[in-house]
Design goal:
GO molecular function, one term: heme binding
Protein name: ABC transporter substrate-binding protein
Largest sheet: 7 strands, mixed
Shape: elongated
Structural class: alpha/beta
Keywords: Heme, Iron, Metal-binding, Signal
Helix content: 25-40%
Number of strands: 17
Pfam families: Cytochrom_C, Peripla_BP_6
Family: Belongs to the leucine-binding protein family.
């Protein structure tokens, strides 16, 4: 038991009131008195608000310093600055050990304990005695204060993957892809000197067990971010409360500022199919209906209905399918494969043959059993197709499959997991050594036109949390079935 405690995640750093005030001053340039602090910059002592140039803007949240404009701010590690006796070295200077008094002097006047004047690029701050003491108190703890999951040599990630039930196979596939990514990255040296660690827990069968498993990842395992969970019942509000970023599929509970979904969801994909049917097949704007099977699809169906209306379709309704034949020259379907097969059979029995528009990842299992009468009448949305795969992308996918013993028939799930992994890794590289969840969110927002080699270009933005905004459209030929791409990927417009 002792071994488990010693080897487990580090406990959260608890700061007292003075240290918290010092942290606010260090990171945000804000005084404990709420009075505006001023910083003097350059040889002319130009005054600017300290919030514009807080200590962390140059020295980093971890105090290690990072080069900027040819200037390398020194490390603020208190162990190096102030403990022991004798001289210390930084920027080729020698100086005695710091005390709280000499620290206050260098912050105020830019002169170190040996009387050396520091680079004029360093701001000088007008601090009250209370602010000086707060800052010194926090700097003594700075080396310990990191976001959850960020340790000296390790960055800890988490995921939720079912071990039993209908999603167990998907869980094993995602785990294999993620473990392969971690192994390959660590073999290459990790990211900014840290090795990645992946912790996977089973979300269990329901929303309560999912919430409990996620809470365990957050509170006990103290993960930095969540990657590609297979947990449809995950509640995005729990992510928001913890400030935990997620790169992977959007939960059924809906989107969130914390969730970055590499690929479009089913509702977004269906818009591409409906637009193709209208623009290329002559489907009338008032001839489309949205049909869903299962209450878990109702919210998504209503969203599709609203977006179709915004895109110029008229008279669109969203109805539950209960076995009845339905009106409409085009039916946009949301639900599982069995219900899709029942819908096709019901329509055929009533002598109707409308276009059936669906997402491949929902209904592909029913397609081989459809009657020949549905040939070229079934249009499926695919977020990516093999034509998107470059030589590099194919090699990446084949390498994962070979190393992990994965079957090509699961390529769709493998690709979506690889996309999530690539986006997270790219954002972590941009964040740098000074990693925080807030910076990760910012780095993800700044990802644009990322070439995965397996999909159309992916990217996010301040108000955009899906890497793609559309889908390829594929027509089904029967019997067979055969699949023919009839419309390449194009982003769905926000307005008509």
């Amino acid at each position: 038991m002792l071994w488990l405690c010693l080897c487990g995640p580090a406990l959260a750093l608890e700061l007292n009131e003075q240290e918290l005030a010092g942290k606010r001053l260090y990171r945000e340039g804000l005084s404990s008195s709420d009075a505006q602090l001023l910083a003097r910059v350059g040889p002319g002592d130009m005054s600017v608000p300290a919030s514009v140039l807080p200590c962390a803007s140059c020295h980093g949240n971890d105090g290690r310093g990072r080069s900027e404009g040819g200037v390398r701010p020194p490390s603020l590690d208190w162990q190096r600055l102030a403990l022991g006796t004798g001289n210390r070295e930084a920027n080729n200077r020698r100086y005695p050990a710091y005390t709280e008094a000499s620290l206050a002097r260098v912050v105020r006047s830019g002169v170190d304990p040996a009387g050396n004047r520091l680079d004029p690029a360093m701001p000088r701050f007008e601090l009250s005695l209370a602010d000086q003491r707060n800052l010194a108190a926090y700097l003594k703890r700075l080396g310990e204060d990191r976001d959850p999951g960020v340790e000296e040599g390790t960055l800890r990630l988490g995921t939720l993957l079912p071990e039993q039930g209908p999603l167990a196979e998907a869980g094993r596939t995602v785990k294999a892809v993620l473990e392969d990514g971690v192994a390959q990255l660590n073999q290459a040296g990790g990211i900014h000197g840290r090795r990645l660690q992946l912790i996977a827990l089973d979300p269990g069968p329901d929303s309560a067990s999912t919430a409990q498993a996620l809470d365990q990842l957050i509170q006990r395992e103290r993960i930095f971010a969540l990657i590609a969970p297979v947990a449809p019942l995950l509640d995005s509000r729990q992510l928001e409360q913890a400030g935990l970023p997620l790169v992977g599929a959007t939960p059924r509970s809906g989107g969130s500022a914390q969730v970055f979904d590499p690929l479009p969801g089913v509702p977004e994909q269906l818009l591409s199919v409906a637009l193709h049917a209208r623009d290329s097949l002559g489907l009338a704007r008032d001839a489309v209906q949205v049909i869903y099977a299962g209450e878990d699809q109702a919210q998504a169906a209503q969203w599709v209905q609203q977006r179709l209306r915004q895109l110029g379709f008229t008279g669109v309704s969203a109805q539950a399918f209960t076995g009845q034949a339905l009106a409409g020259a085009g039916i946009v379907f949301l639900g599982r494969a069995q219900a899709f097969a029942e819908l096709a059979a019901s329509l055929q029995a009533s002598g109707r043959n409308p276009y059936l528009l669906a997402a491949s990842n929902q209904v592909a299992g029913a397609v081989p059993g459809l009657a020949p009468a549905w040939s070229r009448r079934v249009l499926l949305a695919y977020p990516f197709v093999p034509g998107d795969w470059t030589a590099r992308g194919r090699a990446t996918l084949a390498g994962v499959q070979q190393r992990q013993g994965l079957e090509p028939r699961q390529a769709s799930l493998q690709v979506s997991t690889l996309c999530a992994w690539q986006l997270l890794v790219e954002a972590l590289k941009q964040v740098g050594r000074d990693a925080s969840r807030e910076q990760l969110l910012g780095a993800l927002e700044q990802l644009h036109d990322v070439d995965t080699g397996l999909t159309p270009l992916l990217g996010f933005g301040p108000g955009r949390r899906q890497g793609m905004a559309g889908a390829h459209v594929v027509a089904v030929s029967l019997p067979g079935p055969g699949y023919v791409e009839v419309a390449p990927y194009r982003p769905v417009p926000d307005t008509p």
